[in-house]
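Researcher: I'd like a candidate sequence for this fold, 165 residues long. If you have to choose between options at a position, lean toward the conservative one.
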């Protein structure tokens, strides 16, 4: 059963006349636990928002990478077309046209290589950021589990002390 801070605050306990708990202490503890649950819920929501933002950034980068890949493929197709055109013109004896086409091809290849290198660098950078975010998310989850474990031990200790009294 998942309890919210409001559930904790609204919890009522029966009163025993003999060997009962101090209602003020119980109320204070319940309020402290509820406050802590509020903080954890806020932190969890913030982490979820951050994760959503990072996932959106990842999708954007993947879209840019896809666009760059498509641009590279298109550039390569254009380069192939220029090559074929230059070959035909060379066969017709148009050396000047061939040199012009080779120059355009060379520039297109340089541009394609540059775009591909930029895409690779961006992908590497984003992979590092994603790995960092995954590590951060794991660390936050471990910290949250540690806090929950600590509170569990405190509650168990309180129960043990109250049953021993």
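Model: Candidate sequence:
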């Amino acid at each position: 059963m998942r309890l919210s801070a409001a559930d904790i605050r609204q919890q009522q306990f029966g009163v025993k006349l003999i060997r009962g708990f101090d209602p003020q202490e119980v109320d204070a503890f319940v309020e402290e636990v509820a406050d802590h649950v509020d903080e954890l819920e806020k932190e969890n929501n913030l982490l979820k928002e951050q994760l959503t933002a990072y996932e959106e950034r990842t999708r954007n980068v993947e879209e840019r990478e896809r666009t760059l890949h498509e641009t590279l493929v298109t550039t390569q197709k254009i380069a192939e077309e220029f090559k074929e055109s230059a070959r035909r013109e060379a066969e017709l004896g148009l050396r000047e046209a061939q040199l012009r086409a080779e120059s355009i091809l060379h520039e297109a290849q340089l541009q394609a290589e540059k775009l591909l290198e930029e895409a690779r660098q961006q992908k590497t950078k984003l992979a590092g950021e994603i790995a960092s975010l995954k590590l951060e998310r794991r660390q936050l989850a471990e910290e949250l589990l540690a806090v929950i474990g600590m509170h569990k031990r405190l509650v168990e200790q309180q129960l043990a002390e109250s049953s021993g009294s």
